[in-house]
Amino acid sequence: MNVNRKAGEKLVHELLEQLELNLDGSLDVYSSLKYPNVEDHQRLGEFFKNGFEALDPGVDPGSTDAIVNHVRGQHKREQVQAIVLAASSLMLCMDSTNRRKVGVDFCGGRGVVGITLAALFPEWDIVVLDLKPGALKLVQTRNESLKLKNIKTWQGDVSQFQVDFDLAVALHSCGIAADLVLQKALIQRAPFVIVPCCTGAVVPQSAALLRVAMNKAMISSKTNESSTTNGLKNELQNENLTKNSSQEVAKIPKIPVSMPRSILFQRILNESCFCELAQAADFGQGELDMTKEYCWRRAAKTLLELDRIYACIDQGYRTLLMKIRPLTASPKNDMLVGWPKECERFSKLEEQITVDTFVPSISSLAESSKWLDVSESHFAAAHLQLKQFCADPSVTQICIAQGLGSVARKAAHAAAESLELKHTSTGKGNRRSVLVEKQVMSPLEIRFRGYIGFFGSKIESIAKLALSKNVVPESALNQRLRLRGSEFHMTLCSSIDIKQYGKANEVLDRCRRQLSCAEITVLGIGCVEEKIGLSENKVYFVVVQCAAAQNLRLNLGLLPFDFHITLGFDVKDIHGVRKDRSTIFYSFL
Ligand SMILES: C[S@@+](CC[C@H](N)C(=O)[O-])C[C@H]1O[C@@H](n2cnc3c(N)ncnc32)[C@H](O)[C@@H]1O
């Protein structure tokens, strides 16, 4: 894809900075779902444990005629398994006893996702939708041996589909088709799991085409002309699949379509910069490997998906940005999951979400050469092993990557670094390995994350105390969790301060020498707000004082700072405003 590298890289870094995603390892906006109740669901529990071996061999997406290559087949399995498991957690929240539910595999191709869902959930009707009759023919051929009664096909464009449904899934829906699927789900107030691909294809068609497609769909259903004119009516003639009546369609709210799509991104990005971003985000497997260019182009893809995520949040959706694991399953491995906030039946999912720190900060990746030749799959394996090590309180050190090559050892060092573990090389020859040790945390840790801040148990307990007052809305806490992870901090010197002073290492060293036993006085909980488009963005924080830190700033020639610990925000943090006593609405004094 032809992309102006310098401009693309600059744009990505500017955006990361504006969204504060480069300051504290924050491209780990990725979340995970602990799939609820899968063990209770017999078929699903087995699928969860044993993958496609638990199902009829005809369901396996890795062994169809279309897949001749073993590795490709394995990747397809991993992709399908990831999307199906995420979809399952939504499906398990919906009760199908009164009415059969309808799931649509949009851009379903030969139905790899749709067939798996139909096999796992016989109480659901699954529609595989695609533009290409040839692909849908393959769905029918595959089903000849499977004899699944609950699978249907629908041929045509996504925008033309006018059947009510309860769940939208789409694996590798190309460019604008992913936006059309999201639009369909938002209009239906249905939950969705979407893995978009080909972001460059978004560019030439742009918002105007998307609007035209949606309008056409509205008009065709208002005149009540069936869009299922391609000989496919028969497929969908099932009393449980009801077509939107013209009256119902008239009631459907028109959801504005623009590029960027979200209020947040519209504030910071015009349409032409958005197109640049989409081009930067378009890259294929192995094209770039772990080069610096890979890092900022991956960041561009994540930003693009974040815009989609925020557009759904604007429409009252609860959303997750997830990753297909292993990361090698596909270069297009961002998975968007969402459900309408007003639907209580999905509320149990809230407790199942964890913010994942699996993906290292893209900016730290891009800035630090030590990451550049780290293999993603070795990194993934080492990271998983070290996460288990961190979770086990009975061990304080572990040797990993023993007997493996230098690439695996480098990845092990990188994984340990990303988890802030101490790591050293040990052993000789084929006994070389990486010794990883847990660091003994002092109550007040001083760390560099682009800014310098206090971390550790003292900061965590101040935040916990403030949260126990229940005066900060849960949605604001969740938004912070999503963007920043679970750790709290108190900034001592911002990235701007460090730029002004010039020598980050010297500032860090002075902070560590002079502030490791500093006193912190908690004053109260403060709030500041701003308008973002039509909505309000409130930021909540603990207002604190630290005389030693203020003195150190003075000695460094820096201005006094309103020390605080951010607890939550509706959309994003606000900087450059006072966060002092005057903002306190809940006092501790
Ligand atoms: C990359 S393939 C993915 C197929 C399948 N989901 C899979 O993962 O194997 C994308 C599919 O989307 C279909 N497609 C693209 N744009 C579409 C649209 N606007 N409406 C319906 N199908 C579309 C294509 O025909 C193609 O089969």
TrEMBL record:
Residues 450-575 form the Swiss Army Knife 2H phosphoesterase domain. Pfam families: 2H-SAK, Methyltransf_32. GO terms for molecular function: nucleic acid binding. This is Methyltransferase domain-containing protein. One of its GO terms (cellular component) is cytoplasm. It comes from Timspurckia oligopyrenoides. Gene3D superfamilies: R3H-like domain, Vaccinia Virus protein VP39. Residues 76-201 form the Methyltransferase domain.
